[in-house]
Design brief:
Layout: E1 2-5, E2 15-16, E3 20-21, E4 31-33, E5 38-41, E6 67-71, H1 78-89, H2 104-116, H3 120-123
Antiparallel strand pairs: 1-6, 2-3, 4-5, 5-6
Length: about 130
């Protein structure tokens, strides 16, 4: 079981050789394991596109915030968990964005909850969440 927290006080900068800050944001997909089964994962950040000299960063000059991940159950490594979360940030086919900050499953659950709270009939029935993706 994994908890994903979007709002936190962490920031990250990419450091190049000789301890200088890079002109580009940290790379999307970077993660740092912390203590007590927690880690930081950057779902935003610089992406090297094929045929491009400079990395693409859709947020432009903003410093990307990582997601704070907390494991409560399970012993899988952070690499697998982070790769799966990254894959889910690219699965929203209702947008032209290269990626989203949060995994599509969380976004869909939030949207579904918004719709269901306005209809008692919808709340009484179970639905497969993939119908709303």
């Amino acid at each position: 079981m994994l908890a994903i927290q979007k709002k936190n006080d962490w920031k990250g900068m990419r450091i190049t050789s000789k301890d200088k800050a890079d002109n580009n944001a940290c790379r999307r997909g970077s993660y740092i394991p912390l203590e007590n089964k927690t880690a930081l994962l950057w779902t935003q950040g610089a992406v090297q596109l094929p045929g491009q000299q400079w990395p693409y960063y859709k947020e432009k000059r903003a410093i990307p915030n990582p997601l704070l991940l907390k494991k409560s159950i399970g012993n899988t490594g952070w690499s697998d968990s982070c790769q799966n979360i990254l894959r889910l940030t690219k699965m929203n086919w209702n947008t032209e964005k290269l990626y989203n900050t949060m995994p599509v499953t969380i976004k869909c659950a939030q949207r579904l909850a918004e719709v269901i709270k306005h209809s008692e009939e919808l709340a009484k029935t179970e639905y497969d969440y993939t119908l709303f993706m």
